[in-house]
Design a protein that fits this description.
Structural class: alpha/beta
CATH topology of the largest domain: Rossmann fold
CATH architecture of the largest domain: 3-Layer(aba) Sandwich
Number of domains: 4
Number of strands: 16
Number of helices: 22
Low-confidence stretches: 297-301
CATH class of the largest domain: Alpha Beta
CATH superfamily of the largest domain: NAD(P)-binding Rossmann-like Domain
Helix content: 40-55%
Shape: elongated
Radius of gyration: 28 Å
Strand order of the largest sheet: 3-2-1-4-5-6-7-8
Mean pLDDT: 94
Distance between the termini: 38 Å
């Protein structure tokens, strides 16, 4: 028989605890909130009153509902007042000793069937539960901040948590209007385990001066559709909080990728905690302000005198990426030479561009005259010689190093002196393409994102040989075609793939360990972190074979044990389950 939870306790009424109390009371639950002293009680009361006043002003509560909500919360400084609670949620500071002490005391106070839940975001629920005589009735109930707004709740089961407790707490979370996901007791649970490894990796990139803070953040916002870049998000979370979570995850996992980047500790020591202190990776108007007041440029200022003139552009390839790039340049007034293996393939590619342009015209995004002018600028050709007069060549052929090197060797023989040779590779070393030429200083990576006419991001990849004026010209060209350039070195994955695919790989490892279901992992990352797609949805869209190839490239370059492709990903690719394109991947699309 399911438990009836009508009275709930909340121990610890800081920002999170008071938010949880508000959520409970809003759902008709009688709440007993416990704090250490009367001053803390008054602060908690103020939190709830201010939060509900904002909800009243925003039209999310009326006066009567607010009065009823506030009346349901009783404040106390004594744990013994929780004797009649059906469920107690602990939300004290993230200290195992402190939480263990609270649970040991609660165990002696509440009834034998009462459930004890911890709101810990990173500590082991099992270690907390062993300090009671009822570990089977101990569960994790991890709300996200701000609790009244964010819908995700991670329900954490230990190896001894009773099944009916999980069922009752899950049902209770749904009653609160939340989206619960059930997971095992592992460092970081779902959201933090996947999120903080990614954030830590971004800090290491910044620490190594691989890319600027602005470029790292812009790359993930524009390349992946994330609501915030990793360094801005760390400032919002608080660098001290992030450090504690990573430390806790590392103690439990011993995964080197969870070991906090040294820069985090240095910044914390210097008092640079993020928004709450007014300065972190960015500087803000003041403590707790979201307004950034410093604006160091993402790249060195580009001297117009150092930029090479680019009027005509060559594009090599006939795939989706090549035709998209050709369309982008033609729409922006550049003469484009589109080279394919045969004239027929080149003309077919131009016909596909025409369809795309005509769709834009029919939707009112482009005038009929501008569409016709753009198409008139594209010349389909079959030979390399036709590229002899262009100022910039963008190679967009298959992601095969031998094929790309053959293209660059051919370009080297026909391209005029001073022409820039660019590759759109997403994972191969740009310097390997440059090595096929006698002009490595003129070679740069221009990694567009698909679909090129829509996606704003371009990663400008400099090799150790690329000359500064080539980088400056690449930057200027990206800006001229309406793209946002970000700069990085010639390293596997560049920025976006280097940060994205280890996160996706971690999600696969989480699934193969039977730690959580794919749907729950996707839900946790979409609802808890505001990501546009869950990891398994994204893997199926990208293609598991493409994802595996990128992950192998990352592992082969960095040799990080944590980057080794998940065996489950290898097995699915071997079985031909490649995602949406084959009808089956992590999900089955054949019935859709």
């Amino acid at each position: 028989m399911a438990r009836t939870i009508e009275t709930a306790g909340v121990v610890g009424l800081g920002t999170m605890g008071s938010g949880i109390a508000e959520v409970l009371a809003r759902s008709g639950i009688r709440v007993i909130g416990v704090e250490v002293d009367s001053a803390a009680v008054e602060r908690a009361r103020g939190h709830v009153e201010q939060s509900t006043a904002r909800a009243l002003t925003g039209g999310k509560l009326d006066e009567d509902d607010r009065a009823a909500l506030l009346a349901r919360i009783t404040y106390t400084t004594s744990l013994t007042d929780l004797a009649e609670a059906d469920l107690v949620i602990e939300a004290v500071p993230e200290s195992l000793d402190l939480k263990a002490e609270v649970f040991a005391q609660l165990d002696k106070i509440v009834g034998p069937d009462a459930v004890l839940a911890s709101n810990t975001s990173s500590l082991s629920v099992t270690e907390i539960g062993v300090h009671t005589s009822r570990p089977g009735k101990v569960v994790g109930m991890h709300f996200f901040n701000p609790a009244p707004v964010l819908r995700l709740v991670e329900i954490v089961r230990t190896v001894v948590t009773e099944p009916d407790v999980i069922a009752d707490v899950t049902g209770f979370a749904e009653r609160l209007g939340k989206t619960p996901v059930v997971i095992g007791d592992r460092a970081g649970f779902i959201a933090n385990a996947l999120l903080f490894g990614y954030l830590n990796h971004a800090v290491r990139m910044f620490e190594q001066r691989y890319a600027t803070r602005e470029d790292l953040d812009a790359a993930m916002r524009l390349g992946c559709g994330y609501p915030m870049g990793p360094l801005a998000l760390l400032d919002l979370i608080g660098l001290d909080t992030a450090y504690e979570i990573l430390e806790s995850m590392y103690r439990q996992s011993r995964n080197r990728l969870h070991a906090p980047a040294p820069l985090l500790k240095q910044m914390i020591t210097a008092g640079l905690l993020g928004r709450k202190s007014g300065r972190g990776f960015y500087t803000y108007e003041g403590p707790d302000s979201p307004v950034v007041v410093d604006s160091a440029p993402g790249v060195a200022p580009v001297d117009p005198g150092e930029v090479r003139a680019v009027r005509a552009v060559g594009v090599i390839g006939t795939g989706t990426m090549a035709t998209g790039i050709a369309e982008v340049f033609a729409k922006r007034g550049y003469d484009v030479v589109l080279r394919a293996r045969t004239t027929e393939k080149a003309e077919a590619a131009v016909a596909r561009i025409a369809k795309s342009v005509n769709r834009a015209v029919s939707k009112g995004k482009l005038s009929e005259a501008d569409g016709a002018a753009a198409l008139a600028r594209i010349t389909p050709v079959a030979g390399f010689d036709a590229l002899s007069g262009v100022d910039l060549v963008v190679e967009a052929v298959a992601e095969d190093l031998a094929v790309k090197q053959e293209v660059f060797a051919a370009l080297d023989a026909v391209a005029k002196p001073g022409a820039i040779l660019a590759t759109t590779t997403s994972s191969l070393p740009v310097i390997e393409c440059a090595a096929a030429t006698e002009r490595p200083g003129d070679v740069v990576g221009l990694h567009f994102f698909n679909p090129a006419p829509v996606m704003k991001l371009v990663e400008v990849v400099r090799t150790i040989a690329t000359t500064p004026d080539v980088v400056a010209t690449a930057h200027a060209v990206c800006a001229a075609i309406g793209k946002h350039p970000v700069h990085c070195g010639d390293r596997a994955g560049f920025i976006v793939n280097a940060l994205l695919f280890p996160y996706l790989n971690d999600a696969v490892k989480m699934l193969e360990a039977h730690y959580a279901q794919a749907a729950d992992i996707d839900t946790a990352m979409k609802v808890g972190c505001g990501l546009p797609m869950g990891p398994f949805e994204l893997l199926d869209v990208v293609g598991l074979d493409v994802s595996l190839a990128i992950q192998r490239t990352l592992f082969n370059e960095f040799r990080e044990e944590g980057f080794a492709p998940a065996p489950l990903l290898e097995h699915l690719v071997t079985a031909g389950r490649l995602g949406r394109k084959t009808g089956k991947g992590f999900a089955d699309y054949t019935a859709q």
